[in-house]
Automatic annotation (TrEMBL):
One of its GO terms (molecular function) is hydrolase activity. The keyword rRNA-binding does not apply. The lineage of its organism: Bacteria, Pseudomonadati, Pseudomonadota, Alphaproteobacteria, Hyphomicrobiales. It comes from the Bacteria. It comes from Pararhizobium polonicum. Residues 208-307 form the Peptidase M20 dimerisation domain. Its cofactor is Co(2+); Zn(2+). InterPro entries: ArgE/DapE (IPR010182), Bact_exopeptidase_dim_dom (IPR036264), Peptidase_M20 (IPR002933), Peptidase_M20_dimer (IPR011650), Peptidase_M20A (IPR050072). Belongs to the peptidase M20A family. This is Acetylornithine deacetylase. Keywords: Cobalt, Hydrolase, Metal-binding, Zinc.
């Protein structure tokens, strides 16, 4: 027998302790990435939780010790009603041994209306709220005619995109909500891609040949890859400045399209002219751009820089973009996500936010990136919507407000019930 939604919302208050316990339980699983490969127990717990609610479970190892978990609750409506993916990552930001936590990062504490522990904001709070919402909906037999897919993914903190793997495995829906840190704002995001630019000489020269290589009449055509990389870096700075004055996107600070020369490696020994130099860059771009086009712009610009140099024109820099893991291959992609405020699901979510909090919903652009972009990239309308503040994510004594966690849980209850009952 079904009860009305208000009863469930009241239960979020009266059963607050259970919600906090669930969050503390999730925090107590030590899942920092790096080092990663440590989410097996947390994922088994979440899979068990979903299974108890009637979800069928699909789980597979993305890496040894790091399985993805997807639970599917088939709606009774035979695909005639709106479906939703609820997505969250179970890995948390790394912890270094010298950090001064009140207790251990994985020994959560509850005080002053806060839960404190690694992942409280990013993003075990979002996972706990969404799981608790589903539990209450199922416990009270609220009709859910549309399909509900819950993705608990790994690797987000190190660019391993468990979410991309879920998309590739065929999980689709009419809307995806990524329950990552957004302070209950409903957000899209800009994108990030990392890349390696390599300048490589076809020959290696001894240090003693430098005089011939750089002075009048020396006669030896060669170059230091490190010195030639200076031109590449200068070119990247010119392009970055050009983007800053020519590109913009509503809701993003001007100049957000940055190219950071983050890491440089090169040369082999003081006795040689550097014959190779590798530059690791991080590129940020706006929500309405994509990494394919942005990286083409960079390559075209650097080709022009190279063509203006007598040695680089014959020894063009090479590029390796993105990657599936910062740990395994030192590369990652977080595609951009454009929020569509006119999408029926986004409008419904905003209205539920307003009903629960009594405040107008805030739609905007996240100042960071999450797995949300993979849904946009795969053509699934999506938003980032979760509890916790970004300034607490990855910080010492990471925390989430219990009031906000409860509001979040209520909004999710109300939204899921309404969306799942909306005809397609
Ligand atoms: Zn996150």
């Amino acid at each position: 027998m079904s009860v009305d939604i208000q009863t469930l919302l009241d239960q979020v208050d009266s059963r607050e302790g259970e919600l906090i316990d669930l969050l503390c339980k999730l925090i107590s699983f030590e899942t920092p990435a790096p080092p990663a490969r440590n989410t097996k127990d947390a994922q088994a717990f979440i899979a068990g939780y979903l299974q108890n609610l009637g979800f069928s479970i699909d789980t597979w190892d993305m890496y040894p010790g790091d399985p993805n978990v997807v639970g599917v609750l088939k709606g009774a409506g035979d695909c005639a009603y709106k479906s939703v993916i609820i997505n969250g990552h179970v890995d948390v930001a790394e912890v270094s041994p010298d950090e001064a936590w009140e207790t251990g990062p994985f020994t959560p504490i509850v005080r002053d209306g806060l839960v404190i522990g690694r992942g409280a904001a990013d993003m075990k709070g979002g996972l706990a709220g969404a799981l608790f919402a589903l539990m209450l909906l199922r416990e009270h037999n609220i009709p859910l005619p549309g399909d509900i897919t819950f993705e608990s993914v790994i690797g987000e903190e190190v660019g391993e995109a468990g979410t991309l793997d879920c998309c590739k495995r065929g999980y689709m829906a009419d809307l995806a909500l990524v329950v990552d840190t957004s302070d209950l704002h409903i957000q899209g995001q800009g994108g990030v891609i990392t890349g390696w630019i390599t300048v490589k000489s076809p020959q290696s020269f001894h240090d003693g040949t430098r005089r011939q290589m750089i002075h009048a009449g020396g006669g030896l055509v060669g170059a230091s890859a490190i010195e030639k990389m200076m031109k590449v870096i200068q070119g990247l700075q010119d392009l970055e400045r050009h983007w800053a004055v020519t590109k913009s996107y509503p809701g993003c600070p001007l100049g957000s399209t940055t190219i950071n020369p983050a890491v440089i490696e090169g040369g082999r020994h003081a006795a040689f002219i550097a014959d190779e130099c590798r530059l690791w860059i991080t590129v940020h771009y706006y929500p309405n751009e994509n990494h394919e086009a942005v990286t083409q712009e960079i390559e075209a610009h650097i080709r022009n820089v190279a063509n203006a140099d007598p040695w680089l024109k014959d020894n063009h820099p090479t590029f390796r973009w993105g990657g599936k893991s910062m740990i395994e291959e030192r590369g990652e992609i977080f595609p951009a996500l454009e929020l569509d405020p006119s999408h029926a699901g986004i409008k419904l979510l905003a209205s539920k936010y307003e009903m629960v909090t009594g405040e107008p919903a805030i739609l905007g652009v996240s100042s960071t990136v999450s797995d949300g972009g993979w849904f946009g990239h795969e053509g699934i309308p999506a938003a980032v919507f979760g509890p916790g503040k970004l300034r607490h994510a990855h910080s010492i004594n990471e925390q989430v407000s219990i009031q906000q966690l409860k509001d979040y849980t209520k909004i999710m209850i109300d939204f899921i019930a309404a969306w799942s009952s909306t005809p397609r």
